[in-house]
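Page 47, continued from p. 46.
Same chain as before, 189 aa.
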Amino acid sequence: MLNIVIFGAPGSGKGTQSERIVEKYGINHISTGDVLRAEIKNNTELGKVAKGYIDQGQLLPDNLIVDMLAAKLDSFEQSKGVIFDGFPRTIAQAEALKAMLAERGQQVTVMLDLDVPEEELMERLIKRGQESGRADDNEETIKKRLVVYHSQTAPLIDWYKQEGQYAHIHGSGRLEDITAEICAAIDKR
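Result:
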C-alpha cells in the first residue's frame, strides 16, 4: 500500500499535486474537508455528531476525524493506497493516523512537505482569492492562517523526520519540476 501524507502551508499546491499523484499512481484521495462535508450531507451518525460540534463553533475531536477517515479508507475496494490531504494537522492526529493504519497492517509510506517561501504563498493565495472569489483568501486572513500553520502544524515535520517518513519538496518553480521531485521521493520508498 502506498499511503502518502501531503503537507504544506495554505497555498503550497497540495490540491494540485494530489491530483497529479492520484493520476500517476492510481491511488485514492482523502481530503478531510470533503469527507467531513459528505458525512454531514449524507446525515450519517458520524456526520450528525460532527455537525453538533461545528454548530457550536467547536473543533472536532481527533478520534471523530480519525473514525471518519477510517470509514472512508475502508470504503475503497482493492485500493493501491491513499493520499491524505489536510490531515494530520497535529502530532496527536499523526499518532492517531499511525495507529489507525497499523490496525489495518499499513503505515504512512512518505510525508511530502511542499515548502514554499511565505511571500510566494501570499501571492498565490491572493491571486486564488481574486480568481475564485474565496473570501478567506485575503491578506489579513492569510497571515492568520500562516501563523496557525507555523505554530500548530509545522511541528509535524520533526515528528515525521523521527519516523523516517519525511521528504522535503521544493514547492516553487515549474509545476512539472515539482511533480517530478515528488515522484522521485515516492519512488525511492
